[in-house]
Amino acid sequence: MNCTRSALRLHQSLGLRALPLRGSVVSFARFNSTSSPSSPSPKIIEYDSPLRKAVTGLKIFSVGSLGLTAAITPIFIMMESTGAQMVMIGTAFTVSALNTLMVTYLTSPYVIRARTILSPSSSSEGRQIEFTTLSLIGTKKTATFPAKVLMETDEYDSTDSRFLSNVTVQKELKGEYEGVKTDFFVHKDQKGEGIDAIWAAVREEGKVSERLV
């Protein structure tokens, strides 16, 4: 009994607390009064394009029609076709291919979803923007940039950015993002926290085209 009391006093002096177990056996666990504070997570503001479903559907329809045309073209070629029929088959395939390329060109800068990532106040890092667009076959592609490398442009200014894009990586910095999509279109006529966060980040940390000043 005296041994047990001595052990209790010894562990209490070392910052331990006793956890009684069944019977006369006593277990000791160190009492930790402080816990390491978790680092604050960044705030994320999301934006969804108002035409997201329409653009996605158009893309899928365009690619699907081209695939169907390409699949049935060899069947007609192997059949006994006259010269006029061959011309019609070739014309149909060409029109379908051109339609798909046109849709791809016009919709590839279109941002269907974006996220503005705000660093905690204790961090020296600026805001970042994550853009989600559609690839040639309609799959989602995501690219993230610091707001400070972006520039707001005139959507019809072909000298600074791609046709129908109004957010782009600054011209002198595009070499650092080789192989990554750098031209995007985001609606300016929309209202909401998501769209406001994007334009605030670009205008405050990035640049604005001289045509818009």
TrEMBL record:
<keyword id="KW-0812">Transmembrane</keyword>
<protein>
    <recommendedName>
        <fullName>Transmembrane protein 186</fullName>
    </recommendedName>
</protein>
<keyword id="KW-0472">Membrane</keyword>
<feature type="transmembrane region" description="Helical">
    <location>
        <begin position="60"/>
        <end position="79"/>
    </location>
</feature>
<keyword id="KW-1133">Transmembrane helix</keyword>
<feature type="transmembrane region" description="Helical">
    <location>
        <begin position="85"/>
        <end position="106"/>
    </location>
</feature>
